[in-house]
Amino acid sequence: MEVVISKNGKSAGAHDKLMEKIVSLAKRRGFVFQSSEIYGGLNGCWDYGPLGVEMLNNLKLQWWKEMTYRNNVEGVDASILMHPKVWEASGHVENFTDPMVDCRQCKGRFRLDTLFDELSIKRKKEVLRSFDEAKYAGQLKDEVVLADFIHVSSDPANATSILNALTCPTCGNRSTFTEARRFNLMFKTFVGPVEDSSAVVFLRPETAQGIFVNFQNVQSSSRQKIPFGVAQIGKAFRNEINTKNFLFRTREFEQMEMQFFVKPGSDDQWFEYWRAERMNWFVRLGMKKEKLQWHRHEPEKLAHYAKDAYDIEYLFPFGWGEIEGIHNRTDYDLSRHEEFSSKGMRYFDEETKEKYTPYVIETSAGASRSFMAYLIDAYHEEEAPTAEGGVETRVVMKLHPALAPTKVAIFPLVNRDGMPELSKNIETDLRPSYRVFYDDSGAVGRRYRRQDEVGTPFCVTVDSQTLQDDTVTVRERDSMQQERVGVGGLKRYISDKLA
Ligand code: ATP
């Protein structure tokens, strides 16, 4: 299976090359593999290797601590399969669709809105002019509005006119698309042995609904008072029409979501609070500030349930892309579940004696997408001196230590004179506290490079001086500075640095 990392199948530019390097490093060093690779892979599905799963777990742990180690947020872990009525109540059965078209020539399948979105601005203008210049002339200035245009015009009559002007990005043929169809992104399966319509269930397309249906359970068992939140990390599944850009758009992925229940009227203030919290979290975990931006959803583009919505976007090599959404979902979800289940979802405020349906501020981040953003953000190539006095390119993953899959690498300079034994003792001492890696093969310079490439913050080398004064060399990844540290104080030294 080909890894599609280019937006439009055209020859790879510098940005695509960067993505290629990261995808290849991810595979070579055991961060991410194609799912079922020996059978040619399965589109939109990826496996995390030894270093990848460690880093992903670190990321999720950081999020979990950030969100639930507070006095007003509880955690849950709801099941992936839920009662089918959940998805009727949530609006997913009706609304969770993308406009899909097929190319009659090459049988390629595309999302109509992305097909249009990926055209150059000049081409977009041409296409729209051929369609209805008068109506859309005012919008031609703004690319964002243009991109939304087709989405909004789900009217088949409009779509057909536009389709006639579009060129297939795969085979290059013009006017060859089928009519746009609404394609529901939820994966369907059956519970029990009989595969009939009464047994249909869906793989959850978001984790949020597992929180809403448990609102009363969590509130009464934890005795939380409004305002309070419920957080969850878990897999979600979307049968995306086109998967692309590595982990960015996949069919199986993980989300880290929190729903914060508030009194109506205080929602705007909590919305701003959580926006600030969530942006700060990405920055504190090392993401470059200048590669992050807010994108506010325009009122006409808001989801059916939302009063206000902002995306946190990261500047990927292929452009800005959402990594987290912060939404004011109003009382939509709880009201709908009350309506569909006939179970009360309102909250009784003991102090004011009021009964109301809480509003919800949602923070919805992709664990897999954020993982990829962190990999990209950390990837650096720099000039570094070689032992022979030359210069070479050093690839270094400048991951925040909390995210780094391995915290410390331990090297005996040579495999004799008691150095391996001393190194093993250090390994035994550190291993219960940190994920450490023992490496005794090749020149030390090469061993450093191997660790730089996977973001290990510290390398500890046992050398001949260790035998005399019981000190080791600790080399820091980003600065490449080396320090001599006493073996007895090493654990403390590392824990202070990592803190
Ligand atoms: P997009 O517009 O990119 O499809 P979305 O607006 O549908 O995303 P949400 O429903 O708000 O996304 O989901 C919250 C988060 O889940 C996103 O910010 C993203 O990080 C992640 N996410 C959504 N869809 C996918 C996917 N197909 N693959 C990987 N991560 C995803």
Task: Spell out the key features of this protein.
single chain, 499 residues, alpha+beta, BirA Bifunctional Protein, domain 2, Rossmann fold, five-stranded mixed β-sheet, disordered N terminus, binds adenosine-5'-triphosphate
Overall radius of gyration: 26 Å
Structural class based on helices, strands and sheet pairing: alpha+beta
Count of domains: 3
Runs in which pLDDT lies below 50 for 5 or more consecutive residues are: 1-11, 140-147
Q: Name the CATH homologous superfamily of the largest domain.
A: Bira Bifunctional Protein, Domain 2
Please summarize the sheet with the most strands. Answer: 7 strands, mixed
Termini Cα gap: 42 Å
| Percent range of helical residues | 25-40%
What name does the CATH topology of the largest domain carry?
BirA Bifunctional Protein, domain 2
Strand order of the largest sheet: 3-9-10-16-13-12-11
What ligand species are in this complex? adenosine-5'-triphosphate
Q: What's the shape?
A: globular
- Strand content range: 25-35%
Tell me the number of helical segments per DSSP (H or I, 4 or more residues long): 17
Number of separate strands = 23
Average per-residue pLDDT, rounded, comes to 89
**Which CATH-level-2 architecture of the largest domain?**
2-Layer Sandwich
Q: Would you state the CATH class of the largest domain?
A: Alpha Beta
Condensed summary:
By secondary structure, the protein is an alpha+beta fold. It has 17 helices and 23 strands. A 7-stranded mixed sheet has the order 3-9-10-16-13-12-11, with helices on both faces. Strands 20-19-21-22-23 form a 5-stranded mixed sheet, sandwiched between helices. The protein has a 3-stranded antiparallel sheet with strand order 5-4-6.
